[in-house]
Structures are given as structure tokens and as C-alpha cells.
Write a structure and sequence with these properties.
The chain is an alpha+beta fold. The chain folds into three domains: 48-225 and 396-486, 3-Layer(aba) Sandwich (Aminopeptidase), CATH 3.40.630; 242-281 and 336-394, Alpha-Beta Plaits; 285-334, no CATH class. The chain has 15 helices and 18 strands. It has helices at 3-27, 48-60, 74-86, 88-93, 157-172, 197-206, 265-278, 287-296, 302-309, 315-325, 327-332, 369-380, 404-416, 453-456, 468-486; strands at 95-99, 103-108, 118-123, 143-144, 147-149, 181-186, 213-216, 221-223, 232-240, 242-251, 255-256, 336-343, 350-351, 354-363, 385-388, 420-427, 443-445, 465-467. The strands form five sheets. The chain has a six-stranded mixed sheet with strand order 1-2-6-3-7-17. Strand 1 (95-99) and strand 2 form a beta hairpin. Helix 1 (3-27) packs across helix 9, helix 2 packs across helix 5 and helix 13 runs antiparallel to helix 15. The chain binds zinc ion (ZN). Zinc ion binds next to loops.
Length: 487
């Protein structure tokens, strides 16, 4: 045998051994016994007409995020009054503190002072809803065909009402928490949260309060079949990507457009926007994505399971697949760029002395604002000024999943929902929760609504609505989670 043949045989043998190893590894990766089982759990009784009415009334108060002086804060005060009327026992049991005029902290004292409190977040504000294109008035709170319609019904008055309804029912039943419970409701989540949540967290920090866990919206319930999982995936956000708006600016002499320059300011900015879009940052694995696949892999169909169980060996292939499969899967493993605004001259026949564009960037968990700025500056070159616009946020830390709070959360999901598989993941949008890392390490995001894809797409869009069945289930989820974590 020649040396070449020996090498070939050795390569073939190692390759064979590797494939056998990968197959055995797939076979021996077994699903955990507790996943998907709801262990004969009995949920609390919820009056579905009452909870639907409460959400409907909450939706009727147009608590639009105040963005300028022309907008009023009055709806927030009306909303506070409404909550007091709708949830009398809760308001009797909880101490209320108002932060920055419109944000709310409620505290229900627990009997065991040695336990750190549990903290539930929601935001009172909603995004605008011009009535064109809606089947019903966006702030009518119409109850129709088993749904509550209106802006905020999902994002996120639905979650707030489910939480408060759960607490009210529990208090009616004589509930006394062992662990202190905080409910913190900001008033500008839809515009950075800097007036509301940020001040709430700063206030709590100043008082030296630390939380055992924080639970906010975010993380959805998705049909697992898209990734070969039989059942629903209950995704729990353990961190969130960073946020950054970059302004690109080009300057060139302005003037009459009948004798144009070869490349004016608009041309330069357009070129820069194109270059940024065509030069993305690299896809990179991050901890929560690895944890996500680790949790899902045992429950996948054979081919998917083979790929995801052997994700370390097949890493480049898998990365490529996630990149091309869907914008959402790509966004889990990379910093994204979206050009959202451009401005040149005010008149069609005038060359502008400067032109600008805004690139909205969502920063991968293991990258930073500085990394992104450096990349973009490199791509656009010296002729373009790059400026960081206000509102930037670094990616958050990743909360541990090996904690009692996370275990109680996933256990409760298994109890309340049938055929749900909880799994951690990096939340790709932004929430108020990002401000709470200063008072808590265990910050989780979960929205306990089972909604169709069509309904999910109505968030921030036309005909937002929440099925009353899902609202009732979410109320039962909160009641059980509060009982398990704070009872
Ligand atoms: Zn929201």
C-alpha cells in the first residue's frame, strides 16, 4: 500500500467514525420527561365575561405614548383611575407609588422578609392607530366573535389585565403571598422607556431593592413545526439585542439641479445606504441561541434532530441555513441593519447641501455599539459622517436559565398549557425589561398568549385583537405562576 492510500483509508475511517458518532449522539439525545406534560393541573376559575370587559374598558382609554407637546397625558391619569375601579382588592392590598407622574409601582408585601421580591412588568402606553382600515374603531374596545378588539389589546394591555385579573381573583380567594410582589407599569415603552421604566428601575435601585426575578412581555408562543418540533414552542427571552440608530450624512455644494454635480449629497448617501445593506456583519453564535437549540433538539423530527444535536460539528452549514431560511432566524445570530429614513432637499429642483439617512441597527448579543459603529464607518468610507442618534442601548446581559425562577416559569408553562415546549432565546426587539438588570439578574420575557400568526401580525398594525380564550388562559397562567413563585 502506498502512503497516499494509507492516508485515504485513514481519512475515510475517521469520517465514518464521525458519522457513526453523530448518529449515536442523535439516538441517545432523549426528550426530558416533564416537557409537554401538564400533570392533570386544575386552573383557577376565571369569569371570562368579566376579564373581557376589563380588557375592553382598558383599551377604550387611548394611552398613546406621548411623543410631543401636542399630545396629552390625561389618558394615563384616566387609566390609573380605571385600574383602581376595576381592581379594588388589588388596590387595597398593594401600596402604590407614582413615578415621574405617570408610571406606577405596586407592592404587595409578602410574609417572608428573607425572600427577594418577584417583579411583574407591563407598559400602559400604546402605539398610534389611525382609524383607516380598521373593522372597528381602534379605541372602541369592541367585543366581537370571541375577541377583544383594539389598539393595545395584545401589546400590552392584554398581559397587564391578565396579571391584575389573576391577582384580584387570588385576593378574592384569600391569597396572601409569602414573597413580596411588585407590579411595575411604565408609560413610554413604545418610545425607549426612558421616562417610565428607566426611572422606576432607578427608584427601586436607590431604595436598595433587589428582585428574585423580573417577568415582562416578549417571547412568543410559536408553532414548532417550522423547525421540526411537534408542538408549540414557548419562547422565553433571557436577554435582548442592542438598539442603535445611526445617521449617515453627506455634504456637497447645493445649487440648481439643472447643472448637477457628478455625485451630489443624495447620491453619496444612497450609495452609503446600499453599501451598508450589501456588507452585513458576520453571523455569530451566541449563548441564548445555543441554549435554544439545546432545549429544542431532543423534541425534533429525526433529520432536524440530527442536524441540531450535532450543531457544533455542522456549525457553518447550520449558520448558513439560519441566515437564508427566514429574516427572523437570521436576526437571532447577527446584527441587523435596516435603512428607515432618508432626507435630501426640500424641493424637487434644488440640490441639497447635505443629505442624511438613518440606519436602524439591532446588535447581536455578543457585539457592542462600538463594534457596529466601527463596521459601518469602514463600509461607508471617509466622505460620510456617521453619528450615533439618541436612544442607543447595548445588548443586555443574558439571564441564567439554571435558576429557581426560570425553572418555576417553565414548570408553570408545562402545567397551564398543553403540548408547550419552553425554551430560552434572545429577544430580538426591545422591552422595558432591559432597565431592570440593575436590580435583578434573572430577567425573563414571556407573553403567555396562544394566538394565530394572523393575530400576531396585527400587533402595531390594523385590527389588533386578542381572543378571549387566550386572555383567560393567560390569567390562569399568571395565577399559577404567582402561586408557584410567590405563594
Ligand atoms: Zn409592548
Amino acid at each position: 500500500m502506498t502512503a497516499g492510500e494509507i492516508i485515504l483509508i485513514a481519512i475515510a475511517a475517521s469520517l465514518g467514525a464521525l458519522i457513526v458518532f453523530m448518529i449515536l449522539r442523535t439516538i441517545f439525545t432523549k426528550p426530558s420527561k416533564t416537557a409537554f406534560s401538564n400533570q392533570g393541573f386544575e386552573p383557577i376559575a376565571v369569569d371570562q365575561d368579566r376579564v373581557a370587559k376589563h380588557l375592553s374598558e382598558a383599551v377604550k382609554i387611548p394611552t398613546l405614548t406621548v411623543l410631543n407637546e401636542g399630545m396629552s397625558y390625561q389618558p394615563f391619569l384616566d387609566f390609573h383611575n380605571y385600574l383602581e375601579k376595576a381592581y379594588p382588592l388589588f388596590h387595597k392590598a398593594a401600596k402604590k407609588t407614582i413615578i415621574n407622574n405617570y408610571s406606577l409601582i405596586y407592592k404587595i408585601e409578602g410574609s417572608d422578609k428573607d425572600l427577594l421580591p418577584g417583579c411583574f412588568l407591563a407598559h400602559q402606553d400604546v402605539v398610534p392607530a389611525p382609524p383607516q382600515g380598521w373593522e372597528v374603531e381602534p379605541f372602541s374596545g369592541a367585543i366581537k366573535d370571541g375577541f377583544v378588539y383594539g389598539r393595545g389589546s395584545q401589546d400590552m394591555k392584554g398581559q397587564m389585565i391578565a396579571l391584575l385579573e389573576a391577582l384580584e381573583i387570588m385576593l378574592e380567594n384569600g391569597f396572601k403571598p409569602r414573597r413580596t410582589i411588585y407590579c411595575c407599569f411604565g408609560h413610554d415603552e413604545e418610545f425607549t422607556g426612558k421616562e417610565g421604566a428607566k426611572n422606576i428601575a432607578a427608584y427601586l435601585e436607590k431604595k436598595g431593592i433587589r428582585m428574585e426575578f423580573v417577568l415582562d412581555e416578549g417571547g412568543t408562543v410559536l408553532d414548532g413545526s417550522i423547525i421540526g418540533v411537534n408542538g408549540m414552542m414557548a419562547l422565553i427571552g433571557t436577554c435582548e439585542k442592542g438598539y442603535l440608530d445611526l445617521e449617515l450624512k453627506a455634504k456637497k455644494p447645493g445649487g440648481h439641479s439643472s447643472s448637477p454635480l457628478k455625485r451630489n449629497a443624495v447620491d453619496l448617501v444612497a450609495e452609503a445606504v446600499y453599501d451598508v445593506a450589501m456588507t452585513p456583519m458576520k453571523c455569530k453564535w451566541n449563548l441564548p441561541v445555543k441554549q435554544l437549540f439545546k432545549a429544542l433538539a431532543p423534541h425534533m423530527k429525526p433529520l432536524y434532530k440530527f442536524i441540531f444535536v450535532n450543531r457544533d460539528i455542522l456549525s457553518p452549514l447550520l449558520k448558513l441555513a439560519l441566515r437564508v431560511a427566514h429574516p427572523v432566524t437570521a436576526s437571532l445570530i447577527r446584527t441587523t441593519f435596516a435603512a428607515t429614513q432618508m432626507k435630501g432637499s426640500d424641493a424637487p429642483n434644488v440640490l441639497p447641501p447635505e443629505a442624511t439617512a438613518t440606519i436602524n441597527c439591532r446588535i447581536n448579543i455578543n457585539e457592542s455599539i462600538a463594534d457596529v459603529v466601527k463596521h459601518v464607518k469602514n463600509v461607508v468610507g471617509k466622505n460620510i459622517e456617521v453619528t450615533v442618534l439618541p436612544g442607543e442601548a447595548e445588548p443586555t446581559p443574558v439571564s441564567d436559565i439554571d435558576t429557581p425562577a426560570y425553572k418555576i416559569l417553565t414548570h408553570t408553562i408545562n402545567e397551564v398549557f398543553e403540548n408547550f415546549l419552553p425554551a430560552p432565546y434572545p429577544f430580538i426587539a426591545a422591552t422595558d425589561a432591559k432597565y431592570y438588570y440593575r436590580i435583578c439578574n434573572n430577567v425573563y420575557r414571556f407573553t403567555p398568549f396562544t394566538v394565530s400568526e394572523d393575530d400576531r401580525n396585527r400587533i402595531h398594525a390594523l385590527n389588533e385583537r386578542l381572543e378571549i380564550k387566550a386572555l383567560v388562559k393567560a390569567t390562569q397562567f399568571f395565577a399559577r405562576f404567582i402561586e408557584n413563585s410567590c405563594g
